[in-house]
Design brief:
heterodimer; A: about 500 residues; mainly alpha; two-stranded antiparallel ribbon; about 75% helix; about 0% strand; disordered C terminus; B: about 325 residues; alpha/beta; D-Maltodextrin-Binding Protein, domain 2; 2 domains; six-stranded mixed β-sheet; five-stranded mixed β-sheet; 11 strands; about 20% strand; globular
C-alpha cells in the first residue's frame, strides 16, 4: 500500500525527541486555548505561528498540528465543567456533559469524551490516509442544491432538541433565523439591519453561545445557589476512566458519530456543527431510552464528541487535495502552509507530499498524546473547579467577558454576550430551548445563500433540487424520517406530548 | 494538604506556560515607543485561498522574514458582501492604525453598487502594489474549447464569480452585451468556492485572476480562454486577449492596501516605509509578483488616492451603463 509507505516515511521524518516534545507542548497549549470560551483553533494556531519562525518546517508543522488537535480536545472541557461551549460544535457536548457534571460525574464525562474524541480523530485520520483523493472527488460534486438540502437536514434536528414544547422550539428557531439575517449578504452585497457598523458582519454566533450558555448559567447559579456534587478531593485516575460497561455502551454511538463526522466534516462551512447535531439526533432517535438524553446520557455525550473530532481530518481533505479550506481551523492551517513556502492547491501532494505526510503523522501522534494527557489531567480540571467553586460564578463571568472581547477586540461583543446572557436566563426560566436558536443562527445565512445560488443556477426552477441525485437522496431521507416519526406517533397516539420524550 | 499545595503548583505552572508564550507575542513590538502597541492585523476582505488572502500572507511573510518591521503580523479573513464585511470591520476601528486592509476593485465597486454607507474616501490609502488581469477559465473536461464555442452555443451558460457588482461581474456583463449571449452570473463567497464549483462542474466558466488559477492551470485541471490585458502576457503566450477575439475588454483588477480613516501621520509614515521596504525586496518580486503573475505597479498613498478617484469615475460610468446602479 502506497499510503502506508508514505505514512511510515512521514513518521520517520517527524520522529525525533525534539519534535515529540514540540507536539506535546503544542497539544497542551491547544487544550488550554480551546478550553477558554471564545478562543478556538484559529486563535490557538495564530498565537503560535510567530514562535515557529526559525524552526525547521517539520517542527513548525508539528507544533501547529499539535495545537490544532489540542483545541479540539479543549473545547469539551468548559462545555462539560461550566456549561460554556467555546464554539458551535461543542454545544452538543454540553447538552449531556453538564448534566453529568451536576450529578457529580464530571470526571467520568471528561473521560468518556476524551475517549470518544480519540476514536473520532483516529477514524477521520484513517479516512484521510486512505481515501483523501477519492473523497475529495466526491466532495466537489456537491453544489449549492446539495448543500441546501444538507442545511435543511441539519435544521430538522431542531425537532429533537425541542424539549417539552415543539411550538417553543419553533419560536426559538425563528428568532435564530431573524438573528442570522443581520449583516451583509454576499449574494447581493446588500447590508441588512446594520444599526451599527459592527453589525455589517452580522451577530457573531460564538458571542451568542457564550451568552446563552455561560452567562445565563451564572445567573441561574446565583439565584439557586447551585452546589455541584464534588465529593472529597481526589486524584485517583481510576474514577475518571470509563468502565467496561460504559465503554460497551458508547462503542456504537462513538463509531456512528465518527462516521457522520468524517462524512459531513469534509463539506466546507458548517460541516462540523451539522455533524455534531446530526449524530446527537441519530443517537436520540435510535436510543432505547431517549428520555435520558439531555439528562446525562453518556451515548449523547460520546457521539457528538466523536463526530466533532472526526470532522477535523475530514476538513483537511479538501485542503490537502484541492487547496480549499473547509473550516476556520483549516483556513488558518492553509495560511501557515503558505508561510512555510508550500502552495496549497491541486499540486500540493505532488510538490510537497513528504511534508504533508509528516503533518498527517503529526496529527496521529498528537491524538495519542492528547488522549493520555487529557485523561491524566482530569483530576486537575475537576479539582480546579472544586477549589474555585465558591468563586465559580465570578470566574466564569470573567472568562466569558474575556472570550467575548477576544472575538473582535472590542466592546461590542461583550454587550452581545450580556444581552444574550439575560435572554438565556429568561429562556431557561420559562423553558425555551436554546439549541434550536443557536442552530438556526449558524445555519440560516448558509441555508439562504445556498438556496439562492441553487435557484440562480436553475434560473428560477425548483426542479434543481429533484433532478440531482444527492439532493433527491437527502429529500427522500427527510421524508422517510418524517414518515417514521408519524408512524411512531400513531402507535403512542394516547400521548398528546409533541416531544420525543 | 500536601496534595493541594502540589496541585496549586501544577496550576501555576500551567498558567505560567500559557502566559509566557503570549507575552512573547505581545513583547515583539516593544522597541517602537508608541506605535505599534500590539501585533498588526492585516485584514483580507475575501476568504482564505483567494487573492486578498494570498497577497496579505505573502506580505506578512516577507516583511517578517526580511525584518522590515519587528512587530508580529496576524492575517485575518473577513469575507463576504463583496468586501463590504471587511470594510465595515476595518472602519469600525477608525483611528486605530493597527489595521491594514487589502483593497482591490471591489473597494470601489462595492460602495457604488450597494447602499453601504462607506466608500474608499472613508479609508486612508497606503499604496497600490500591482494590477492583475481577468481571465476566462474553464474546466479542462468541458465540451467547449474556445470562447467562441461558448458564446455561439445554445446551451444556457452559468458563470461563477464573487459577489454582484465586482470586476468579475462587470467583465461578464460586458461580454454579455458585446456578444449578445445571455450569461447567468452566480455569486459565490470567495475565490476558493468558485474554484471548487468549477472543479465540480457546478458552473460552465468563471472569470478570475491568474493568481487564483495558477496552480490549476499548471496541473491541467483548468484551461484559460481569454485574458483582459492589452497584449498577451509572457507567462501564458497561448492565451489570447479579449481584444484579439473581438471583444474590447481591458479592465483589470488593481491590488493595494488601505488603513482605517483618521490614523496619525506617524502611523501613515510607518506603513509607507514598510511598503517601500517590501516592494524593493527580491522575495516580493519573485515569490509574490512573479509567482502570481501580477504586473508591478507601485504607487504611494497620495498617488493611489488619485488613482482611486480616477477609477471611481470610470467604474461609476460602466456600472450605470450596465444598470447595476440606477
Amino acid at each position: 500500500m502506497e499510503s502506508i509507505q508514505n505514512l511510515l516515511i512521514g513518521f520517520n521524518d517527524i520522529f525525533s525527541v525534539y519534535n515529540m516534545i514540540i507536539i506535546f507542548l503544542g497539544s497542551m497549549f491547544g487544550t488550554i486555548v480551546g478550553a477558554l470560551p471564545g478562543l478556538g483553533p484559529s486563535a490557538g494556531i495564530a498565537l503560535l505561528i510567530p514562535l515557529t519562525f526559525g524552526m525547521p518546517v517539520g517542527s513548525a508543522l508539528s507544533l501547529l498540528v499539535g495545537a490544532y488537535m489540542g483545541t479540539m480536545y479543549g473545547g469539551r472541557i468548559t462545555a462539560i465543567l461550566i456549561n460554556t461551549p467555546g464554539d458551535a460544535p461543542a454545544i452538543m457536548t454540553a447538552q449531556d456533559g453538564y448534566p453529568l457534571m451536576l450529578q457529580g460525574k464530571g470526571g467520568l464525562a471528561l473521560g468518556i469524551s476524551a475517549f470518544s474524541s480519540f476514536i473520532g480523530g483516529i477514524f477521520g485520520l484513517i479516512v484521510l490516509v486512505f481515501g483523501a483523493p477519492i473523497v475529495s472527488k466526491v466532495a466537489i460534486n456537491f453544489g449549492p442544491p446539495e448543500y441546501f438540502m444538507l442545511m435543511v437536514l441539519g435544521l430538522s434536528t431542531i425537532t429533537l432538541l425541542a424539549g417539552k414544547s415543539m411550538s417553543k422550539a419553533v419560536m426559538m428557531a425563528l428568532v435564530g433565523f431573524a438573528l442570522g439575517m443581520v449583516g451583509s449578504d454576499y449574494v447581493s452585497g446588500f447590508v441588512r439591519f446594520d444599526f451599527t457598523p459592527e453589525l455589517i458582519e452580522g451577530v457573531d454566533f460564538v458571542a451568542i453561545i457564550i451568552g446563552l450558555y455561560g452567562i445565563s448559567e451564572v445567573f441561574l447559579n446565583i439565584e439557586n445557589l447551585v452546589h455541584l456534587k464534588m465529593g472529597k478531593p481526589s486524584f485517583k485516575v481510576k474514577e475518571f476512566i470509563p468502565s467496561i460497561s460504559d465503554i460497551k455502551k458508547i462503542t456504537m454511538p462513538t463509531l456512528r458519530g465518527s462516521l457522520i463526522g468524517t462524512l459531513i466534516g469534509i463539506l466546507p462551512g458548517a460541516g462540523g456543527t451539522i455533524a455534531t447535531f446530526l449524530s446527537y439526533a441519530t443517537e436520540k432517535k435510535i436510543a432505547k431510552n431517549p428520555e435520558k438524553f439531555g439528562n446525562g446520557a453518556i451515548e449523547g455525550l460520546a457521539a457528538p464528541e466523536a463526530a466533532n473530532n472526526a470532522s477535523v481530518p475530514g476538513a483537511l481533505i479538501p485542503l490537502i487535495t484541492l487547496g480549499i479550506p473547509g473550516s476556520g481551523g483549516t483556513a488558518i492551517m492553509l495560511g501557515a502552509l503558505i508561510m512555510y513556502g508550500l502552495r496549497p492547491g491541486p499540486l500540493l501532494m505532488v510538490e510537497s507530499g513528504r511534508l504533508v505526510w509528516l503533518m498527517i503523522a503529526g496529527l496521529i501522534i498528537a491524538n495519542v498524546f492528547l488522549l493520555f494527557s487529557n485523561i491524566l489531567l482530569i483530576p486537575v480540571f475537576i479539582n480546579i473547579i472544586r477549589m474555585i467553586q465558591k468563586y465559580l460564578s465570578p470566574i466564569v463571568t470573567v472568562l466569558c467577558i474575556l472570550g467575548a472581547y477576544s472575538l473582535n477586540y472590542g466592546m461590542f461583543n461583550i454587550w452581545i454576550v450580556l444581552i444574550f446572557g439575560v435572554l438565556g436566563y429568561f429562556m431557561k426560566k420559562f423553558d425555551y430551548p436554546s439549541g434550536p436558536l443557536i442552530l438556526s443562527v449558524v445555519l440560516a445565512p448558509l441555508t439562504e445563500n445556498y438556496f439562492r445560488q441553487s435557484i440562480m443556477l436553475s434560473r428560477g426552477s425548483f426542479s434543481i433540487f429533484l433532478t440531482r441525485p444527492v439532493s433527491l437522496g437527502i429529500i427522500l431521507l427527510l421524508i422517510t424520517i418524517f414518515a417514521f416519526s408519524f408512524i411512531k406517533k400513531g402507535r403512542n397516539s394516547k400521548n398528546q406530548d409533541y416531544s420525543e420524550e | 494538604m500536601k496534595k493541594i499545595v502540589l496541585f496549586i503548583m501544577i496550576v501555576m505552572l500551567m498558567v505560567g506556560c500559557g502566559q509566557q508564550s503570549s507575552d512573547q507575542n505581545a513583547g515583539d513590538g516593544d522597541q517602537q515607543a508608541s506605535f505599534p502597541e500590539r501585533p498588526l492585523e492585516f485584514v483580507a476582505c475575501y476568504g482564505p485561498g483567494g487573492g486578498h488572502d494570498t497577497m496579505l500572507r505573502a506580505m506578512a511573510k516577507i516583511i517578517t522574514d526580511e525584518k522590515i518591521i519587528d512587530t508580529t503580523i496576524n492575517v485575518v479573513n473577513k469575507p463576504g458582501g463583496s468586501a463590504a464585511v471587511g470594510m465595515g470591520y476595518v472602519n469600525s476601528h477608525a483611528g486605530d492604525g493597527h489595521y491594514l486592509m487589502s483593497t482591490t476593485s471591489s473597494f470601489i465597486t462595492t460602495p457604488l453598487s450597494s447602499d453601504l454607507e462607506l466608500n474608499y474616501k472613508n479609508f486612508t490609502p497606503i499604496a497600490r502594489l500591482g494590477i492583475d488581469p481577468e481571465m476566462v477559465l474553464i474546466n479542462s473536461k468541458s465540451e467547449f474549447t474556445s470562447l467562441e464555442d461558448f458564446l455561439k452555443s445554445d446551451k444556457a451558460i452559468n458563470v461563477g464569480g464573487t459577489g454582484l457588482g465586482t470586476i468579475e461581474h462587470i467583465v461578464t456583463v460586458m461580454l454579455e452585451k458585446m456578444s449578445g449571449k445571455e450569461l447567468n452570473y452566480i455569486p459565490y463567497q470567495g475565490d476558493g468556492e468558485v474554484i471548487a464549483a468549477l472543479m465540480g462542474n457546478q458552473i460552465d466558466f468563471t472569470i478570475t485572476n491568474p493568481n487564483t488559477a495558477y496552480d490549476y492551470l499548471k496541473s491541467g485541471d483548468f484551461k484559460a480562454l481569454a485574458i483582459s490585458t492589452e497584449e498577451r502576457i509572457d507567462m501564458m503566450p497561448d492565451v489570447p486577449t479579449f481584444k484579439e477575439l473581438g471583444y474590447d475588454i481591458t479592465v483589470s483588477l488593481f491590488r493595494g492596501v488601505a488603513a482605517p480613516a483618521g490614523i496619525s501621520e506617524e502611523e501613515k509614515a510607518y506603513y509607507t516605509e514598510m511598503i517601500k521596504g517590501l516592494v524593493q525586496t527580491e522575495a516580493w518580486k519573485d515569490d509574490y509578483l512573479g509567482k502570481n503573475m501580477i504586473v508591478e505597479g507601485y504607487m504611494d498613498g497620495a498617488e493611489y488616492e488619485e488613482f482611486l478617484n480616477e477609477m471611481n469615475g470610470i467604474y461609476e460610468t460602466i456600472l450605470r451603463e450596465l444598470e447595476i446602479i440606477k
